[in-house]
Structures are given as structure tokens and as C-alpha cells.
Amino acid sequence: MRHKIPQNLFSLTCALLLLSACSGGIREQLGLDREAPDEFLVRKHAPLEMPPTIALPPPQRGAHRPQEKTVETRAKEAVFGNEAQTNSTQSQSSAETTLLQKTGANQTDSSIRERVNYESDNLEDKNQSVVKKLLKIGDKKKQAPATVIDAQKEYERIKQKSEQGQTITGEGVPEKTE
Fold it and tell me: Could you give the maximum distance between any two Cα atoms of the chain, in Å?
């Protein structure tokens, strides 16, 4: 009798799943049925037309092509990116100039980049962990620059100290100067 309840429950569940699969609702919800678009309901758009009042001037031989960039603009783009093109080729209208004057956007600080760098460096120093501050790990600004050792002179120094029985550690490491 104990095995009959789970077996009946399993049979009932399977029957419900099979019956529910027959209806289109679950198949649509699971994405098994696809509806193709009806090609007769597709609307055709009117073709594009040229307005009769537009008059384009004929091209001039040897004239500058407006879609092509000048050599100077291409060089600026190569060095500075796309912002060089937008700054050099676009002139401001009177409305833009008035807006910039009223908002104060044209009175920007020219040394803002240096100020931001200075503030971020100070913030970086404050945000170091206590262990890094105590051990001076990661403090790139306060570390001495790397030195290059003259290999031949160092070999001779080590050989001489070894012959004399002295320790080779300590001062007197020859540095290469250029």
C-alpha cells in the first residue's frame, strides 16, 4: 500500500503533463510553436522620391570634396583622436556662444588636469592600508630610482673581497653612469 500512493501520484503527474502538452498554450509558452509572418499583411512603403524644388549644383573640376578631410585634419585625428576634428572644423553659432557664456562653460580652468591629478594622488596616499604605510609597500613616489651595476667592476670587487676574507655585502657596489 505504501508503494501505491507514490506510483499513483507519478502516474497522475505524467497523465497531466501529456494532456497539457496536447493544448497549444503550453507549447507556445515554451516556444515550441512558431508563428510565421503572413506575407499578405506586409505593407509596402512608397518609394523615395526627389523633391522637385531641390537644385544641386554641378560638381566643379578640381574643387575640394566636402566629404573628404584635409591632410591637417587627418593628422590631428591620428594624433589626438576624433575630438581634434570636432574642435577644429565646427564653428559655434551665436546661440551656442551665448549659452556657453551664460552658463560659464567657456571660462574653464586651464590647469584642471593638473589639479585633478594632484587631488587623486593625495587621495591615493590617504587610502593606503596601514600595513602598506608601515612597510612602505607600493609607495612609488618615495622610492629611489633603480641603479645599474657595473658588472665587470662588481666582479673584481667581489673577487678582491673574497681574497681578503671580507664579506662582500655592504657599501662600495660600483654603479654604471651614462
Answer: 104
Distance in angstroms (rounded) separating the CA atoms of residues 73 and 64: 14
CA-CA-CA-CA torsion for 82, 88, 90, 96, nearest 10 degrees? Answer: 110
Calculate Rg over the CA atoms of the chain: 40
State the Cα–Cα distance between residues 139 and 126, nearest whole angstrom: 12
pLDDT digits (tens, 9 = 90+) for 131-164: 776 776 665 555 566 778 888 888 998 898 889 8
Angle 117-122-127 (CA atoms, 0-180°, nearest 5)?
Answer: 120
Residue from 93, 56, 94, 87 nearest 72 by CA:
87
Phi-psi region of 138 (alpha: psi -120 to 50; beta: other; left: phi over 0): left
Phi then psi for residue 175, to 5 deg, are -105, 145
- The DSSP letter of residue 61 is T
pTM, to two decimals: 0.22
Q: What is the DSSP letter of 149?
A: B
